[in-house]
Design brief:
alpha/beta, globular, 6 strands, 206 residues, 7 helices
Length: 206
């Protein structure tokens, strides 16, 4: 089977999952990764030039269109789509003509979670307008990209619930795998009651 894998992920857990998907699928299938970080990153502008970031979203949409054309030319049996650091669900899902599976790690939290709303309402009026337009574009792309996916996989039951309530789409839970060559039960010492937190020490992570 020919499998195309699409992603635009930053460094972190989601990217590690994508890499493991690639590693294990490559053992039995022909896998090709489609990713171009330089063309799928929003250029940063400051001051009066900051509204140009909105033009960057349009540019990235065209980049995804070109990527979809390259994928369709390769004629994969299925396209496994991981998230995008710009839109969450990548806009490549708008343009593909091949069967697609979107692997959801989370929703577009900056738009859909109340936690982030408090920062929005504290902004000055001009910045608030800019932020509103920015969020509207990202939410529009994210929402319609998810709805264009043929099948959706979620990385947990919690994400599955979020996908249903946010996008009104059913999804199947496919947990990230565990490499037993590295991770295995350790029985030499008695277990303690401990809580392990993995992630950045930021307020949005709890």
């Amino acid at each position: 089977m020919k499998i195309a894998i699409v992603h635009n992920l930053p460094e972190g857990g989601a990217k590690r999952v994508m890499m493991q998907h690639t590693r294990w699928l490559s053992k039995r299938h022909t896998v090709r990764i489609f990713h171009d970080e330089s063309s799928l990153t929003v250029r940063t502008y400051h001051g009066i030039f900051r509204p140009l970031e909105l033009v960057e979203y349009v540019r990235i949409l065209f980049q995804y269109k070109k990527m979809a054309e390259r994928i369709d030319m390769w004629k994969p049996d299925i396209v496994l789509v991981h998230p995008c650091k710009v839109f969450q669900a990548p806009a490549v899902l708008f343009f593909l003509h091949c069967p697609t599976v979107y692997y959801a790690h989370e929703t577009l939290r900056e738009v859909y979670e109340p936690f982030f709303s408090r920062y929005f309402f504290e902004l000055p009026k001009i910045k608030k307008v800019f932020e509103y337009v920015k969020r509207y574009i990202r939410a529009y792309v994210d929402m319609h990209a998810v709805r264009n996916a043929v099948q959706i996989y979620a990385n947990s039951k919690h994400t599955q619930s979020l996908v249903f309530h946010t996008y009104h789409r059913a999804s199947r839970v496919v947990y990230p795998g565990v490499d037993l060559a590295i991770f295995h039960p350790f029985t030499r010492t008695k277990k303690k009651r401990q809580l392990l937190f993995v992630g950045k020490k930021t307020s949005d992570n709890g």
